Amino acid sequence: MSCVLGIDIGGTSIKAGLFTPEGKLVEVKKIPTGAIDDEKAFAEVCEGLSSLVVGAGFLPDDVSAVGLDIPGPVDDGGRVGMLPNIRLDPDGLKTAIKHEFGKAALAFVNDANAAALGELWQGSARDLSSFVMVTLGTGVGGGVVTGGKLVCGAFGAGGEIGHITVNAGETRVCGCGRRGCLEQYASATGIVWLYQQACKADGGEHPKPEHATDTITVFDACRDGDACAERAIDQMCDTLGLALAQISCVIDPAAYLIGGGVAGGFDLFAERLAASFRSHCLSTSASARILPCSLGNEAGMYGVAYAALQEAAKGE
């Protein structure tokens, strides 16, 4: 019996899921890591993965496919681009994993694209052939699926919806070096910033976020009727709805799936976001649905496992 590994790579740890080929998650293991860019680090990762496999009753040769999600661009050929936020040698790690699991096919996938594939395989998008995954976290990412296939783009930048311009007059600089990107308004950091600006303008007493991505405080304040929190969420929905309307002009998806940490407040902003989208989009796209993701933080693990299975099928 074969199994599949789906690996979510983070800055301080990796989260590995062991799956059946049918998509059942058998077990999850968190493996602490630092930089994954030398032989010692590769060995520690492989040791953790082997422990997961053997602990679940499998042998290394039972692993038919291994998928890894990457916080950066990955092109259609699986080549990894620049990784500004993590120290990782993808080629070195690939070689080490291939040595550990000699019969496994390997696949690298951008993290937001991986989440889209996960939802397509086992989540909210199982019955959709065309949708856009919108990941709202510290930043804003996206994954585009059309005709049941992921669109990575020629340079690996397909789905970088966080850098659609929604305010050409913005003076603040986005992390990408441009101004007025969606990420500056619809990410966790963007929502907290909008709330703080509203509180500053109001001058009254309001709950204070504990850190730059503390949307929980903002959402709780909104539920308690705080006008500044209401204003921030309205602004977030207006800019996100505008961006989705622009995407619909190009992709015309059947649905948008909202994931990431900010999706914890989906009940608060779902109707506002839908109204904003309808106010900005062409009438022909107005019936596109806006749905919450169902796999949560495990969507990426599911997605890379699915991508790796597809890669394995090519070699059969």
Automatic annotation (TrEMBL):
Q: Does the keyword Electron transport apply?
A: no
Q: Can you provide one Gene Ontology molecular function annotated for this UniProt record?
A: kinase activity
Extract the SUPFAM superfamilies matched here. Actin-like ATPase domain
What UniProt keywords are attached to this protein's entry? Answer: Kinase, Transferase
Q: State if Nucleotide-binding is listed as a keyword.
A: no
**Family assignment?**
Belongs to the ROK (NagC/XylR) family.
> What is this protein's name?
Glucokinase
Record the organism: Parafannyhessea umbonata
